[in-house]
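Hi R.,

As promised on Friday, here is the backbone we talked about, encoded as structure tokens. Could you run it through your design pipeline when you get a chance and send me back a sequence?
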């Protein structure tokens, strides 16, 4: 397409907006962490690709980008978001099928004057594989080859390839010849044609698989993207496997963003393959996880992965010189420029390029300027009901991030409703954040055989802290071949002082030689003590060996803002406390977007005795014994009153 000259009215509009922009005050971009220069060589409409590094540190929709002229004036701009290539399709206007010389010949009238680039066939056949060729004609007499040695197939598992792509062209007639030399003819009942609506062209993105996990029936590949918030077109799997079919699922931040079936089949030296996974979306994560379902097939040999990325463009009217582009202020609101209404006209207008330097720290950055206003501290608090207290070392002021350790997690309420930050007798409002990825910690394991049950393998696990909130447990075994069911339990005392076994979790575990598969067991109940028991019934098999146990526990963080140097303490251990309600949630987005400073917990101080295990003493509740004593005394008095008096 011939570029459209930059219209004068657009130039005038942009120029007017540039001159009427807000004039800078002292350090107007002190809340922005990064800056980079934009070198403009000639006046006019300037267009350049926003670097991936800029996209990575900016807000997802680039709301915090600010463009400043050499004179220090904030200048309007337009972000040109990717336009995905849209595929248009329609059934053919006429369709004819005939058998000729061990071939099935399909002739069709596309019924469109668009440049066709693919034909898709329709059939009710459940399973077949065929070689095919496609030709095009403008008069129905002279035919031009469009595709040859293509492979069409359908498998009973639902995988199929009935679409044949070819170089785009305008044709009045399409002919598909399908070879029936290897198998009986298949009835094709119709067809459709496709043409493409132009969109933003994707550019290659080099990727590296940094981690590969082999799980039961699955292969998981961890693929870093190098930046977050990228717009991705496709992900392509590189493999030398000649024949395969696998369903794949692409995950970002633990959620599925795309899924498809990838395959490669071969016929008479010709192959058909679909190795691209369509995405066509912005991905907020900086890392992808590709889950490949192997079923009972061996894992695929993966040689690598590659992706297509859609560029994001910025356009603005400029005079020659060095401009400044600021980013890295996630709390900033998106600017409202009148020039945004001209984005479609600007997209096709003639423009000049600009050179953008790498990101550098903004020398005028002031962390306090980037902090959201949170108002005064919280209400006064009565701390009589809390059992534990710990000092917090901040080392700075501003937005803080405090991560709870195992000890705090074990002694706090299971719902974390009793967490209180206290400064100068007042509550310090906070936001609670839990990450999806837990911490992992290996624990000691020792045999704990039960002489009364010789067929049972039993182990004792020792947690670092009583009451540690274990969410799951990963277990490995050197035994090459086995099938077992394992249970996890804990010995507790009930209110009468009796020892009872509390069930915490269970899972089935199968392992074959050459394919070690660690067991991941979900722990459904929270431990009260620090000693757990893992066991399995071996039946008539040799005892199962367990060599390593790793427990997972949640990552819990508190985000808060402090402007005072007064000491801060964390209180917890109050099962009666309700979850706090803070006005801080009104600026939650700004708080979570700020770059926090890590705070640290000091030593724990017990404020009053706490009995964390029910009936741990084995003597039962003293109130229960008092009540029983009163009841027994009353019964003895009643019996004495009812007995007849003896005569002397």
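Update: got your reply. Pasting your designed sequence below so it's all in one thread:
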């Amino acid at each position: 397409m011939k570029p459209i000259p930059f219209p004068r009215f657009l130039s005038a509009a942009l120029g007017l907006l540039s001159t009427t922009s807000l004039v800078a005050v002292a350090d107007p971009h002190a809340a922005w962490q990064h800056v980079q220069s934009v070198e403009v060589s000639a006046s006019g409409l300037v267009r350049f690709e926003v670097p991936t590094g800029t996209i990575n540190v900016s807000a997802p929709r680039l709301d915090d980008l600010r463009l400043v002229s050499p004179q220090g004036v904030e200048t309007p701009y337009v972000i040109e978001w990717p336009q995905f290539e849209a595929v248009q399709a329609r059934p053919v206007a006429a369709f004819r099928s005939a058998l000729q010389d061990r071939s099935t010949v399909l002739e069709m009238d596309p019924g469109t004057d668009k440049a066709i680039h693919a034909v898709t066939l329709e059939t009710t056949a459940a399973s077949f594989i065929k070689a095919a060729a496609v030709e095009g004609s403008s008069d129905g007499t002279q035919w031009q080859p469009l595709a040859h040695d293509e492979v069409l197939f359908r498998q009973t598992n639902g995988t199929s390839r009935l679409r044949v792509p070819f170089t785009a062209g305008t044709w009045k007639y399409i002919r598909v010849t399908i070879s029936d030399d290897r198998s009986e003819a298949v009835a094709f009942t119709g067809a459709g044609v496709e043409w493409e609506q132009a969109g933003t062209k994707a550019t290659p993105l080099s990727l590296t698989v940094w981690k590969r996990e082999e799980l039961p029936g699955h292969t998981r590949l961890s693929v870093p993207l190098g930046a977050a918030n990228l717009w991705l077109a496709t992900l392509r799997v590189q493999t030398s496997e000649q024949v395969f079919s696998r369903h794949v699922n692409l995950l970002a931040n633990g959620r599925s963003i795309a899924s498809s079936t990838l395959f490669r089949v071969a016929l008479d030296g010709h192959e058909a393959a679909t190795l691209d996974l369509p995405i066509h979306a912005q991905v907020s994560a900086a890392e992808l996880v590709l889950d490949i379902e192997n079923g009972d097939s061996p894992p695929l040999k993966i040689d690598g992965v590659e992706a297509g990325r859609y560029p994001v463009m910025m356009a603005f009217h400029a005079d020659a010189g060095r401009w400044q582009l600021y980013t890295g202020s996630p709390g900033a609101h998106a600017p409202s420029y009148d020039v945004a209404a001209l984005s479609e006209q600007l997209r096709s207008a003639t423009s000049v390029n600009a050179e953008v330097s790498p990101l550098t720290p903004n020398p005028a950055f002031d962390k306090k300027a980037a902090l959201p206003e949170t108002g005064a501290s919280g209400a006064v608090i009565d701390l009589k009901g809390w059992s534990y207290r710990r000092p917090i070392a901040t080392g700075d002021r501003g937005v803080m991030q405090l991560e709870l350790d195992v000890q705090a997690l074990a002694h706090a309420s299971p719902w974390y409703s009793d967490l209180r930050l206290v400064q100068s007798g007042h509550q310090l409002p906070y936001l609670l954040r839990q990450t999806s990825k837990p911490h992992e910690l290996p624990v000691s394991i020792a045999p704990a055989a039960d002489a009364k049950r010789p067929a049972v393998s039993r182990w004792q696990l020792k947690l670092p802290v009583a009451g540690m909130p274990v969410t799951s447990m990963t277990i490995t075994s050197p035994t090459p071949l086995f099938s077992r069911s394992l249970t996890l339990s804990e010995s507790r005392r009930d209110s009468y002082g009796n020892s009872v076994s509390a069930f915490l979790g269970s899972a089935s575990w199968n392992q074959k030689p050459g394919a070690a598969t660690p067991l991941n067991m979900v722990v459904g109940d929270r431990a009260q003590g620090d000693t757990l028991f893992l066991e399995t019934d071996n039946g008539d098999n040799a005892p199962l060996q367990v060599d390593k146990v790793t427990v997972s526990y949640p990552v819990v963080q508190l985000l808060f803002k402090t402007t005072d140097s007064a000491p801060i303490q964390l209180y917890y251990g109050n099962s009666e406390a309700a979850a706090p309600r803070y006005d801080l949630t009104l600026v939650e987005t700004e708080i979570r977007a700020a770059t926090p400073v890590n705070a640290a917990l000091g030593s724990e101080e017990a404020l009053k005795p706490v009995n964390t295990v029910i009936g741990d003493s084995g003597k039962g509740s003293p109130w229960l014994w008092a009540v029983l004593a009163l009841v027994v005394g009353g019964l003895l008095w009643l019996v004495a009153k009812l007995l007849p008096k003896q005569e002397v």
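One thing I noticed while checking it: Residues 389-436+555-606 form one domain.

Thanks again,
M.
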